[in-house]
Amino acid sequence: MKLFAFGSNGSGQLGIGHTEDVSTPTPCLFETDIANATDTTHQEKTDLTDILDDDIVHIAAGGNHTLLLTKRGAVYVAGCNIDGRCGPRYQNQDEDGNISHFRRFILKDSITGSEISTFKNVSATWEGTIAVASIPQPQNQSPEKETQDKIYITGPSPKGTLTHNTTNPIQPGTSIPNFPPKDTKITSLSSSMAHTIAILSDGDVYGWGGSRKGQLGARNRDSKIVCQPTKVDVPFPVKGGVCGREFSVVWGPGGKLGVFADSGMKWGITGIPKVLSGFSDSDEDVGGGVRGCIPFASAGIGASWHGVYVHVAPASASASGSIAVNENDTQQDADSAPNPHPGSIIAWGRNDRGQLPPPTLPPTVHLAVGSEHVLALLENGQVAAFGWGEHGNCGPDTDPQGNVSGTYNIVPLPETVSAAGERVIGVGAGCATSFVLVS
């Protein structure tokens, strides 16, 4: 597998070997020697490759760092590491503390001293990293539970973003104590700038970090900051969730959907389109949020800083029928729309920079939502980008304000991709960063 990146790169977060922004997909580089990841005194030049012998299954991005999770549980990191957000500091970081290529993320448990090198999920706040590992239980524990999940945190934790209210870096290898609850596993994890939600195997939701905007439910709003995992009240078992800048979205069986945010929040985040509102008036409240229902097969749900994106399960389709609703729209088109076309996107929220999908967007098979831009892998194998692209994260062509608004760009791929008979199999998006997976 190969990974290409473009966009904001001031801290090396694209992992392409330097710290300059680029507007065309550029090969990401990976360290070949795993020993370097545990050697904090290593100063020699490392061997790099642009081929990863594993499948990337998840990409998480902070403000200036990137995390890649592979099928085998390896995590690779690149970007700012002045404060340990990418793991232990290394002698071969640059003078600004940046890592400009991807290297393995390996921790030493601060309590047991055990080396932790495989993980089941990762997420990133603006400055921090959260990683979930399955840890073998001591032999005197129940034999029915072979492992227990443990959440490791590293980087600064202002306003409780990593369950500590401190701007001082948290020592890599630190974990959140007594979480998750006994006999539960973490099945989903999502973070935004300053808050995180974790979905448990029993359908419960816990969150921490900023809470004053209702992003962790009404019960936690008055706390303003939640510095330990705290239950979020949801009236249905939850299967997954995503975080926007100051809101959260969760979903469960039967298409149940909940959005946690202040009702007066700018950009209309709580204004779920009627096409997604198959519920009675008595069901509208969801612990301080609003409730909806997805009456069709969904390929996934994403959140930008100020928008929500529901991806209709793709299939062969001649038109996209994408529906975008922002605070200046009447919602008439969305409210009266027929069943959406396969591969289309239903989105609502901020659109002053073209963040919502244009109506001409073709059917998509994979969607990646960044902070203020979106990448879509189209049915024809091309990659489309739209939204705020000032750093080149939507490709080389933007309007004078740095936007791709009301339309979309087709991202130009290196000629070597087609020449080698390779194809795009996935896309990723972060904070003005874009990624294309090729195999």
UniProtKB/TrEMBL annotation:
InterPro entries: Ran_GTPase-activating, RCC1/BLIP-II, Reg_chr_condens. One of its GO terms (cellular component) is cytoplasm. Residues 136-180, 327-357 are annotated as: Disordered. GO terms for molecular function: guanyl-nucleotide exchange factor activity. RCC repeats lie at residues 1-72, 203-254, 343-380, 381-439. Residues 160-177 have a biased composition (Polar residues). This is Uncharacterized protein. It comes from Penicillium arizonense.
